[in-house]
């Protein structure tokens, strides 16, 4: 079994621990009413986007998600970084440049890394660390923790993940040539992450959009070789997608739990193409840039 399959399968247990930690209100996470920036790179960025939408929906305060390389010179009450490795150059650059009066926190899998010396508060999910280059359980455990801190996470979220591990993949999913993931609200971040998993692990043609934006152009690529996966926003759009000839699937579980099915599809698709989903081409566990 590949490392990533083992890590995908371990998510229910990881989520239980993350939910308990988040419900305990760990020090450093945003307080109600604060204006917050959440930064990440790649998968962590998409988890930041999902959390930002959830926090605003919960009425906790204005929350912006930024790629760490794109954080503007704007005043925030707190900055939260999500970084599995704790070594990503762009994350470290942001935290190293933050005004000393602005509280910062980092969620990481490894406390013995440079981020520990730069973040004001460190939240370590070492139980969710990974050997695979492709992120799965760390990212989803981070979002589970943040959802629990908001009081928004379903109590049965780990059990839903177990159902996603046992559920069938969409019919003939591995034989499709093009994949689109659609979301709405906070599940836009989940949809973006699902598309990234297929690109990383299987070099697949995969895209993501807010569901109601799909009709404004991208639907033109849908045909009998496509799979369109709804994490949200299917109402009023599903019938139009079906008419293109594309196969469809609509999440019956919480979007984070249904992401587990998409992770499984990424691995199966990679295997069908003779690829190693643990070590995608051109990728490393952490992006450390050469300094000028």
From TrEMBL:
Please give the InterPro entries that the UniProt record associates with this protein.
GlmS/AgaS_SIS (IPR035466), GlmS/FrlB_SIS (IPR035490), SIS_dom_sf (IPR046348)
Question: Where would you find the membrane-spanning parts of this chain?
Answer: none
- Gene Ontology annotations of biological process type: carbohydrate derivative metabolic process
Q: Which GO-annotated molecular functions does the record name?
A: carbohydrate derivative binding
The protein's superkingdom reads Bacteria
PANTHER family attached to this UniProt entry = GLUCOSAMINE--FRUCTOSE-6-PHOSPHATE AMINOTRANSFERASE, ISOMERIZING (PTHR10937)
Name of the featured protein: Fructoselysine-6-P-deglycase FrlB-like protein
Organism this protein belongs to: Sphaerimonospora thailandensis
């Amino acid at each position: 079994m590949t490392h990533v399959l083992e890590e995908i399968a371990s998510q229910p247990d990881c989520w239980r621990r993350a939910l308990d930690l988040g419900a305990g209100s760990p020090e450093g996470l945003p307080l109600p009413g604060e204006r917050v920036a959440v930064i990440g790179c790649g998968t962590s960025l998409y988890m930041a986007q999902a959390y930002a939408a959830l926090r605003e929906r919960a009425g906790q305060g204005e929350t912006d998600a930024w790629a760490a390389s794109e954080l503007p010179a704007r005043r925030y009450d707190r900055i939260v970084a999500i970084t599995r490795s704790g070594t990503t150059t762009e994350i470290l650059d942001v935290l190293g440049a933050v005004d000393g009066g602005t509280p910062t926190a980092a969620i990481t899998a490894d406390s013995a890394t440079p981020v520990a010396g730069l973040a004001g508060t460190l939240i370590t999910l070492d139980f969710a660390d990974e050997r695979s280059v492709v992120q799965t359980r760390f990212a989803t455990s981070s979002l589970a923790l943040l959802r629990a801190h908001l009081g928004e996470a379903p109590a049965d979220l780990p059990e839903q993940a177990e159902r996603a591990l046992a559920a069938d993949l969409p019919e003939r999913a591995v034989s499709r040539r093009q994949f689109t993931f659609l979301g709405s609200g906070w599940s836009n971040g989940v949809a973006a992450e699902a598309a990234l998993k297929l690109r990383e692990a299987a070099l697949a043609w995969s895209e993501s959009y807010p569901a109601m934006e799909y009709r404004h152009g991208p639907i033109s690529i849908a045909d009998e070789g496509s799979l369109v996966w709804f994490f949200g926003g299917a109402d009023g759009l599903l019938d139009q997608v079906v008419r293109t000839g594309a196969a469809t699937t609509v999440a019956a579980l919480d979007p984070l739990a249904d992401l587990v099915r998409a992770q499984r599809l990424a691995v199966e698709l990679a295997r069908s193409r003779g690829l190693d989903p643990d070590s995608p081409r051109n990728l490393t566990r952490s992006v450390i840039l050469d300094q000028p």
